[in-house]
Amino acid sequence: MRKKQTRKSRKTEVRIPFPMVLANILVFVAVFGLSYVWLCARSEMLGREIKRLETVQRDTRRRLISEQDRWANLLAPANFDRALKRYHLAMTLPDEHRIVRVRRRGDDTSAVALAAANRLHRTMNEL
Amino acid sequence: MNYKGRTVFTATAIAAVFAGLGIRLAFLHLQPSSDTLARIHSGRRLEQETRGSRGRILDREGQILALDIDAKHICADPKFILEHGDIQAVCEALSQHLTLDRDKIWKLLDHPDRQYVRIQKFAREQTVAPLRDLHLKGLIFEDASIREYPKGVLGAHVIGFVNYEGVGSAGIEQRMNSYLQGSAGLRISQKDGLRREIYSRRTVDIEPQAGADVHLTIDQQIQHFAEKALDDLSAKYHPQGAWAIVQNVRTGEILAMASLPTFNLNSFGSAPAEWMRNRAINYTYEPGSTMKAMIIASALDSGVVRSTDVFDCENGVWYYGGKALHDAHGEGRLSVADILKKSSNIGAAKIALRMGDEKVYQSLRNFGFGEQTGIELPGEDAGIVWPPDRWSKISITRLAMGHEVLVTSMQILSAISAIANDGIRMRPLIIHKVVDAKGDIILEPRPEELGRPIRPETAKLMRRLLARVTQPGGTGTKAALRGYLVAGKTGTAQKANLDEGGYYNHKYIASFIGFLPVENPVISIIVVADDPQGSHYGGTVCAPYFHDIADQTVRYLRIPPEGFPTEYISRLEQPPPGEEDIPE
């Protein structure tokens, strides 16, 4: 029984001609090679791009810090004073008679009294 | 040799050369020796250590007080310049842009045997950029970073500085160094023939970690108010030193801490060491009359006296223990409230005697004298409070008027803030929060109670008693602020002579300490002047500048005025009509 089956399968076996196999192998190798080369080139390109972006990031960071430094310097109170002096701007606190004082009373629920109370509360919280 | 023979010979020679090269190549690629391999690897190896930038220091509003900025070390390759470059042009450019002496640069570069000299360290980008644009051969720009303090002198003693190795050496820079310093990164890779990194050969890439940002409780505006007031004080009274602190009485946060003489943080190397001293926390002195506030508060709290109790102030001279004790102005009988208002030494001494040694000592300790406040700044002094077994007979009378005890301004401000804060003494805070590079808060100190030296009722009474000091007839009228009721206490103490013992005859420490608004205190302020010229009274020298700082700060913080002085005066007692302001 086994011998019969073996004989049958030998008869039905399809033989692929050698040149075709070789061609397939060559195509596979070529595709593999080309893929490798393409991947190499691609990774090389990505590497260059990463390097470029790293440089851009570094430069941007440098510029950011430089601007932060300049901005912090501009906002220094002493610089404000100098600028006011340079442009002859005298900023004085208002005279007493020009100040409206809102006095808080325990039973006063008027809008202004509440606003004053809120402001006090806010100040305390901020501190 | 005929033509064919020559051809064969040449071909053989060429073939032999190529064969040799091929064999060498095969050896190199297939079985290289370990030495060769090591040489190749070391030649190709690229190892870069990148330093993480140091964290920033910011004020409570996020204003930058310190940050790292990129800089360059300007270097040169003399050998290359002499062989391929133009030494004349290099010298001209460097002397012009770096404002260096041309001959000095020439001497540095005139060394054909050297390949590296450093022309200038830590040059800023704006200096380097024009030089780089000249594309001079042989110049090298090495990466570096410098610590920049954009506000210059503002908060110099608090912020501190880093040394040339990048390690914090004073102030917050020193105390918070472990948070501020970043961790270094490492990149191991290979380089090509042009010394460029071959990205695909990168094997190790550890990013540098930037240090954490430290946010302070300091507010740059209030700091400026304090520093400006000290400048004005200094210009008028020429003291050896002057300092001021502004504190939030509820939380203990320091809003400003200024000290004169000061220095520019960007050129700290040229400042004398004495200028770098933060006198607010490490200068100990006998506080004088400001101490009476704490002694009387304790006496009231323990029930030894009441505010209406009357003491005989002996018309200004009183002998105790064989020694005379004087008042600046002779007073007869004064209530406890008036002893504080008129700052009577004799009255305070008698109150202390009624308390007894142990209670006086304990009250001083309860207010935190003789120990560090625990503020997050390096170099804080603890001061000195001797225990009663080391006191002489008259010590208790001198302690009551702020002698025979050494305190720092931070301690005494902390004590007065306790009175303002319903008797709760808070730890002074200077660190608001620490935020790491990812934006996570890694440290956020919370307000911490250190003790309760007096009860809330006593604190309330003391606030009102201290408010009378700035009212007509008190010693601190120049600290009064229109629209606000200010509580305060003047202090004038002879300066101790540490070299010869005893006291200087004409050297004083003048101070004013106070808080406002009285009914609902928000801020406390201390102003101290060391050896002022022209006047030496705390009420004359320091109170006006307390006023200046307070006036601007209450407006800046939008602290609304509350109540009117007459309400408080009427509750205690009206001042005698026509009573003039008197110096201490």
Which tags fit this structure?
heterodimer; A: 74% helix; 0% strand; B: 584 residues; Penicillin-binding protein 2a (Domain 2); 21 helices; 22 strands; disordered C terminus
List the SSEs and their pairings.
The complex is a heterodimer of chains A (127) and B (584).
Chain A: H1 2-12, H2 18-74, H3 77-86, H4 111-126
Chain B: H1 3-30, H2 34-44, E1 45-50, E2 57-58, E3 64-76, H3 78-84, H4 87-98, H5 102-109, E4 117-124, H6 125-133, E5 139-148, H7 156-159, H8 171-175, H9 177-180, E6 185-191, E7 197-198, E8 204-206, E9 213-216, H10 220-237, E10 241-248, E11 254-260, H11 279-282, H12 290-301, E12 310-312, E13 317-320, E14 323-326, E15 333-335, H13 336-342, H14 345-355, H15 357-366, H16 395-399, H17 409-420, E16 425-426, E17 431-435, E18 441-443, E19 449-451, H18 456-467, E20 487-496, E21 503-516, E22 523-530, H19 538-541, H20 543-556, H21 565-572
Parallel strand pairs in B: 2-9
Antiparallel strand pairs in B: 1-6, 2-3, 3-4, 3-5, 6-7, 6-8, 9-17, 10-11, 10-22, 12-15, 13-14, 16-19, 17-18, 20-21, 21-22
Helix pairs in contact in B: 4-5, 4-6, 10-20, 12-14, 12-15, 12-17, 12-18
